[in-house]
Amino acid sequence: MSHVDGLVASAVRALDALRRAREAALASQVSIVSDGGLPLASMVRITDCEHKTAPTAGEHEVVAGHVVGTPAIRDGRLIHAEARPVNASTFAKWTSRRLPQEGDVVLTREAPVGQAALIREEDGPLCLGQRTVLLSPDERCDPAFVLAVLMSPAYQEWMRVASVSQTVNRINVKRLGQMPVPAVPIDEQRAIGLQLRRMLEAEDRGREEIGQLRTLRSALLATLLTAAHEIPSSYDEFIRDEGAA
């Protein structure tokens, strides 16, 4: 068991290192522009969400798609476990402004501000949850480059400063559309976007490995419990630390 615990800890450290490397790469590649930039609204179509909660599909209803709210958008990826199923009627209403497509970017503009994810083909039929907007790049933009801009430390800070707050920070759609995006040649955009895609894929593999190792640890622990072995106190500490994380 100690060997498995060591593997889990090593995999977590490796994932943290991948995240730091991604942040460093974006910091070096994407800088705020005050002159020569283009307003975000001139490069992407911005579609706001419905400003109410989409009803979850009933137990016996046919699921037409999933609604992605702020809990489902983290670190460049959609978290499918946090996306809620909706029926056909709700899906039609929640996509009446625009149906999210592969290559669109979903952005949270409140609670928290600035989490973004690129929609992939495998993400399936989606609709926007509350406090999100959909960014649909035009032919001048590589979608992953748009994601790189939004995830970069410089533009994360821009969105933080541009936010207004009464109870929680939020950025309004008009202000978001004014964000000055670097005027980068499309080939350079694609290179930056491709590097980000590969980094996110590496992080996906890291999370998958951690999940597999934790599943293995749980199975081994269950075996020990079933066999009535005494469980070392270090396992109690490990479980508490994992729950806190």
Explained architecture:
The chain is α+β, with helices and mostly antiparallel strands and 245 residues long. It has 7 helices and 13 strands. The protein has a 4-stranded antiparallel beta sheet. Strands 6-3-9 form a 3-stranded mixed beta sheet. Strand 4 and strand 5 form a beta hairpin. Helix 1 packs antiparallel against helix 6 (186-226) and helix 3 (143-151) packs across helix 6 (186-226). The protein starts with a helix and ends with a helix. Residues 232-236 have low confidence and may be disordered.
- The total strand number stands at 13
CA distance, first residue to last residue:
20 Å
Shape: globular
Round the mean pLDDT to the nearest integer and report it.
90
Main pleated sheet: 4 strands, antiparallel
Low-confidence stretches: 232-236
**Strands of the biggest beta sheet: in what spatial order?**
2-10-7-8
Total helix count?
7
Strand content: 15-25%
Rg calculated over all Cα atoms: 21 Å
What structural class do helix, strand and pairing data support? alpha+beta
Which bin fits the share of residues in helices? Answer: 40-55%
How do the SSEs run, as a string of H and E? HEEEEEEHEEEEHHEEHEHH
Please give a quick description of this structure.
With 245 residues, this protein is α+β, with helices and mostly antiparallel strands.
Features:
single chain; 245 residues; alpha+beta; three-stranded mixed sheet; 7 helices
Produce the secondary structure layout.
Layout: H1 2-29, E1 38-39, E2 44-48, E3 65-68, E4 73-74, E5 77-78, E6 84-86, H2 88-94, E7 105-109, E8 113-118, E9 126-128, E10 132-137, H3 143-151, H4 153-162, E11 164-165, E12 169-170, H5 173-177, E13 180-181, H6 186-226, H7 233-244
Parallel strand pairs: 3-9
Antiparallel strand pairs: 1-13, 2-10, 3-6, 4-5, 7-8, 7-10, 11-12
Helix pairs in contact: 1-6, 3-6
